[in-house]
Sequence to fold (807 residues):
Amino acid sequence: MRQNLREAGGVHLSAFMDLRYALRSIRKDPSFTLLAILVLALGIGANTAVFSVVDAVLLKPLAYKDADRIVVLNSLFKKTGGKGHVSAPDYYDWHDQSSAFAAMAYYNGGETAVATPNGGEYIVVNQVTPEFFDVFQVQPAAGRLLTADDRKAGTNVVIGYNYALAHFPNAAAALGSTVRMNSATFTVVGVAQPGFGFPEKTQIWMSANALYPETTSRSAHNYNVIARLKPGVTLDEAQTQMTTIGTRLSQQYSDDRLKNVAVTQLQDRMVTNIRLTLYLLLGAVALVLLIACANTANLLLAKATARTREMAIRAAVGASRGRIIRQLFTESLVLAIASAAVGLSLASFGCRALVALAPANLPRVGEVSIDGRVLAFTLLLSVASTLLFGLAPAFQASRTDLNASLKQGGGRTNIAGSNGLRSVLVVAEVAFSVVLLAGAGLLIRSFNALSNVELGFRPEHVLVMETEIPAMDRAGSLRAVQVFRGLLSETAALPGVVASGVTLMPPGNSGSDGGYFVDRLPDFKEPNSPQALFSLVSPGVFATLGLQLKAGRDFTGADTYEAPFTAIVNEAFVKQSFPHANPIGHIVYCGFDSDKPMTVVGVVSDFHQLGPAVPPQPELYMSYQQHPRNHLYLMARTASEPAALSETLRRMVHARSPEASAKFSTLQLRVEENVAAPRFRMLLLGIFAGLALCLAMAGVYGVMSYAVGQRSGEIGVRMALGAGRASVLGLVLMQALKLIAIGLAFGLAAAFVASRLLTSMLFEVKPADPVTYVAVAGALGLIGLLASYFPALRATRVDPLTALRQE
Fold:
């Protein structure tokens, strides 16, 4: 009667009673509570951490007004289907002939040396056309933004808000100040609104053509194009219009014959290279959560078995099945909320770890945080987890046989169907862990193959100094060459320096590339010319890298701007253009910066210029004195720790050019950056797979321990009738092996299908790699046997008399 009155008082009173009883019940068994919370918190924490990254990078709209209206326009190369940069003439035709966009602009740039009283510092600088800020609908924090008139003058810049605050008391104080780049002075006319830094944390924007002359060739793809769709115009409509324009241009210009136009949302374009990796990690942690839920469900089933008589008494005094299910579900919900609280603490640490491990090119990584969206995700995850691990045990516990449970008194009882459910959960845990282990195994084998690639050069003990000497014209570049020449002489004389040289393109840089011609100079509009990477080098670069001179000679100090132009090629270049001839003495023309003929004077060995995953490409090396540049990399091989040379080189550079900039790294670090993304995937999937394996094996251990406890009477009878310890051990291990074998079968089948998603991420390893699957099956089988061995060993120590008395 009291219960009926309480329920008549409203659901909230009944729910309060359930909550109070749930807290009391959980408090009675602290070891169970702590274990359940820890297991579930691991799953929730891992999912929350990965979701925070996925949300920041893939799901959150960009921080621009109507960001979904901002698009990227790329050259679409018909032969390969690839999307690339845009030539200036193509951009102007797109801009003038299209009507789908409210604004369109191009930008190009990167880290540039900006003069400061203490020398140069590297700042991301971009040259932009007048409508750039209109595309993003940016407002100035002070002053004004760039206009078409600024392009004519070419001396005004807009700076970023953070840059302004770092150098001035406030944004307005920056107006009218000057910025020096490449010996030229620019006036600050505006400060961009706080938070704006497109692209890639840009802090200075200047008008196109102000710092570097605009290229006029349609085959020179140097620019990035962005645009804002007009209101009411869809992405598909814009694509249709641009395809029509691209087709018209391909018929009008021979350089555009193999090109068209691709229109993509800006956010989609930014995450193209990382989207699959992040979704892969999110899927991996989802499997970890499912395994954690299965483990928690097994713990609740074990606890429900111990509470069978309690449930029977509750039913005997009038509790309905629904009332019992609600009570048990409330207990599960309390566990889930507590797990979510602990999981959030783990997620906070996990977020920082993910950001630290992430490759440098991960977009929007600075926006990763535990915000309201992530908290809402964690709450939903907790509720979903409650449904996954709480309902099945609650339904099973509510099916207690009232008479049988009360007759058994304090003896052992069992819940109908609980053994089968526990076995199903363990099979699912094993299967899920197999999928993760197989994926991690494939990525580990792929990364191992990538790491064992013979690079063709020696990266150890090489210091790399990126240096830019201020220069605005050819005369300035020639003076910069003399600065570099003096630096090389001084560097070579330093104690501990084994070899040194300067280059335009150190290993790992894509640098410049294009077409070339051998022994003839045709019309440069001729399509399908052979392609090569172009680099500038000084004498000593090949020795610094450890490359072998296969034929001819190295560059010398005599290969100056006034001397006949010379070139050195690599073995891949020889295979492409001189498969049956000696290249020495042949003439090469290229469109790098001059159409002067270059005589091939040497051949050097190949190396992986673009990273271990890319085979050696044909390369054309030119003398740095004959193609003067003010921005080069000085490399020095040392006998000891290369970083110790940094400050000495910095002082030498500033002594020769006070406004010059210098940024240091090592060749070993640059090589490691080339494999940062594969390492990121391998480490995280490996961690999640290891966590899944531990949880799955804990599930196997728990089920076998429970089974031994339930069958102690049977085992006692067997031993009383003469069964030996080996027989009992085999009996329990066979039961475990059956569950593991079934889980392996399902898991391997699922892994074989799921691994197809990894195809684009693997290097010299197939998704159906038999070695990986055999290793996973063998390892999981052995670990599973080990997890079930200890419960089996405990079964062999059952005292037959004690077991029979309990019966």
